[in-house]
Amino acid sequence: MKVAILAGGLGTRLAEETEAVPKPMVTVGGKPILWHIMKLYAARHYEDFVIALGYKGEVIKRYMVEYLNLETNLTVDMRAGTIDRLGEKTDNWRVELIDTGLPTNTGGRIKRLEPYLAKDGTFFLTWGDGVSDLDLDELLAFHKAHGKLCTLTAVRPPARFGHLELDGDRISEFSEKPQTGEGWINGAFFVCEPQIFDYIEGDDTQWEHAPLENLAKDGELMAYSYSGFWQCMDTVRDRKLLEKLWESGEAPWKVW
Length: 256
Hints:
Layout (H helix, E strand, L loop, with lengths): L1 E6 L7 H4 L8 E2 L2 E2 H10 L5 E6 L3 H15 L2 E4 L4 E4 L8 E6 L6 H7 L1 H4 L5 E5 L2 E3 L3 H11 L3 E6 L7 E5 L2 E6 L9 E8 L17 H8 L3 E6 L3 E3 L3 H12 L9
Parallel strand pairs: 1-4, 1-8, 4-7, 10-14
Antiparallel strand pairs: 2-3, 5-6, 8-13, 9-15, 10-13, 11-12
């Protein structure tokens, strides 16, 4: 079963990080956030990836091409002109890297992946900037059970500020950045059937607008409500939070 990852956006709210690399290549714990996302899918043996490239896609291509050499010990024989890997087993991934255009919107990027996804049936879809400890097998089982075209993982985002309950001028309750007090939002871990491509017109289509709106109107969009850990890397503040969690040795998304 294939995993589609959108990795072509500009990442403007991480501008100081994304001048040199695309947002999925911004690192947490010395590894690109894209690597973390792929590792959490691979932990459940979903290891066939289709990555939609756009902004600075060549950086992701170069990383994937060099990945095996970077992750293993090598013997470089300059006399013979050979490079040998020294037997270590690396990740069992197959990665298709597809240029989906620089200005293409999210729906358009998904549509451009149709030739690489549709023939294989059900597929996962996510963005290249968010991690979770979500059980992907349970998500897939939920999707298969309801029989609709698309499942969206609904999450509660971490609050940005402390929560106050007021009784007049008196603070009756204070809680530091609760997560469960926030409303449900799109957590961007989808399971899709190939028919969703029919809901996307072209490059200018934003997935979060007409396609999801029309899938919902047609009764073909279901929500998998998940209250566990979820965090996107949308800002420098988000990156620092993820870095802190990784450095603690207790990163919730590290399920491998």
